[in-house]
Write a structure and sequence with these properties.
By secondary structure, the protein is an alpha+beta fold. It has 2 domains: about 20-125, Sandwich (Immunoglobulin-like), CATH 2.60.40; about 180-295. The chain is about 50% helix and about 20% strand. It has 6 helices and 11 strands. It has helices at about 1-20, 155-205, 210-230, 240-245, 250-265, 270-295, and strands at about 25-30, 30-35, 40-50, 50-55, 65-70, 75-80, 80-90, 100, 105-110, 115, 120-125. The strands form 3 sheets. Strands 1, 3, 5, 6 and 7 form a 5-stranded antiparallel beta sheet that branches. It has a 3-stranded mixed beta sheet with strand order 2-11-8, with no helix packed on it. Helix 3 runs antiparallel to helix 5, helix 3 runs parallel beside helix 6 (about 270-295) and helix 4 (about 240-245) packs antiparallel against helix 5 (about 250-265). The protein is elongated and about 130 Å long.
Length: about 300
Amino acid sequence: MGRIILFLFLLAVSIPISAQKVQVKGYFTQDSAQLGERVGFVLKASYPQAAQLIFPDSTYDFAPFVFLEKKTFVSATTEGLTQDSAIYFLSNFSLEPSSYLALPVFELNRYDSITHYTADAEIKLKLNLDSIPEQLQFKENNIYQPLDKPFNWFVFSTIIGGIFLVAGILFFVFAKRIKRLFRKNRERLRWIKFERKWKKLAEMLQQNPNQTLADEAVGLWKGYLEHLRGQPIQEWTSSEIAAALDDKEVFKALRSIDMIIYAGAEGDTSAATSYLLEVAKANYRITLNQINHERGTR
């Protein structure tokens, strides 16, 4: 008697459990779609709360459709029954009039899994043209339609390359002449600067002979001569400079200014400064002649 009661109890418990089976359903959100159009596929599952189900992800083969995106929703459980759903956004590039799709839902057990498939969902191909005419009709149009011409990089590169080639040839041929021209202009500017500063110092020294002005004037003159001749004139004495220039008057002119520096003497310095300016000018002309001579012999 006890066994019969136990059997009836287990049978009563198993009836609601067996009623709670896994149910899956899938369908498209529209009946038809154009080629490549984005369309949604709804996948739903209803299963006991204790069961574990997994929906397909992006790695699943959705052929003949192309997977675009998946959107999931929060599960809802009522009286031990759980509802899950997701929307798969797909594109269809098949030219068949109708395409079909059935997606699986995987139920995980302790040692294996069970696959539940939805029924085949159909979506029809929507054509833009209702029909193709047997003979094409062309519309006459004599209006000029401008076309965008692509940029010709080959011609551009050829022109730029030609410019660089010509510039290189000109530089190779006239490089030495250009350098000499720059050198002459640089010497002219240096002379103009020296002459202007020398005349100003000479006038100040004539009006107010003092050690500072005299020392600055001699230093300016020696520095300019050293640049022109390439000799250590600033390190030489007045007698050594006169000997190098082979000009005794240079010694006298420098000596008259040195007397102001070392002895504090006062006197007329206009003759000395004028002569030293002429000596500097003569050496400047010699430098220009040397540059011109280099141009004529090459």
